[in-house]
Amino acid sequence: MRLDVESLRAFRAVVDCGTITQAAVQLNLTQSAVSWKMKRLEERLGSPLLVRDGREVALTELGVELLEHAELIVSAHDDAVDSLQRSQLEGTVHLGINDELDADDVAMLLARFRRRHPLVRLHVRMGLSGSIAQLVRGGDLDLALIQVMETQQRDRVLWTEKIRWIASPTFVLDLTDALPLVTFGPDSSYRVSMFDALRRAGIEHYVAFESESSAGVRSAVAAGLGVAVINERGVTEECPPWEIAVLEADMPTASFVVRVNSRSRTSAVRTLVEEIGQMLR
Question: For the chain, is the Cβ count within 10 Å smaller at the N or the C terminus?
C-alpha cells in the first residue's frame, strides 16, 4: 500500500476546515478534485476515514490514527522541499500587515518564506491598514498586506469581501437612546462608512469603545459594549451579523491588496510579493 502526499494533504485540509468545500478553497483545488483524493485514500486503506453529516465531517477511528501520520508526513515533505529549494536571495524586507488577517495564515506564510530564503531578513509591522499604508507611502515599509476601500492602480488585489455590522447576540437596539459604537479609532478605514450609514438612517450614536486591534473590537462587541463594523471574515458566533436593513444598505466592499513602495524594487521584495499572491490569493 502507498499513500501519496497530496492525498494526505487533502485529508488534513478537510479535517482542518470541516468541509470539503472549504478545503478545496484552501488548497486552491476544485471540490471534485478534493473529493476524488479522499475517495482514493479511503479505497487504498479499505475503510472510511470520515463520517459525513450533511455538509460537516467527523473522523472515524482510522481517520484519527491516520491524521497523526498525515501531519508528520506532509510537514516532513514540505520541510524537505523548502530546504532543497533554498535560495541565495539576500537583503532586508520591511513588511506591513493588517491585523484583520488570519494570524495562522500570516504565520505560515512568513515561516515558509524564511525557510525558502534564509538569507533574507524580514521586519514585520502589524497595525491598522491606514497607518500601514502611510508607512508604505513614506518609505518606511517596502510593501504591505492591507485592506482598502478603494484600490490604487499598482495594488495587487488578492480578494474582496463585504463589510458587515456585528453585535452581541444579546444586544437589543433601543431607539430611545443613542447607539453605542465600538470602533477601530479615528484612523480606521471603516469610520467614514459607519458614520455615513448612521447619518443616512438618522440614528443618534456615540463612540463607547475604541481599539486598534480586531481582537479588541470583537471582545468589546461580544461583551455588549456596542455594535461595530468589521470585514466579513471577522464575523464569529460571539459577534454575529447585526442585520438592520437600514444600515446594511449600501455598505461598501473592502479589498485585501498587496501594496508596494515604488522605490522598493529589490529581488527579495518581488519574491515576497509573488509568494504572498500564491499563498493567500
Answer: N
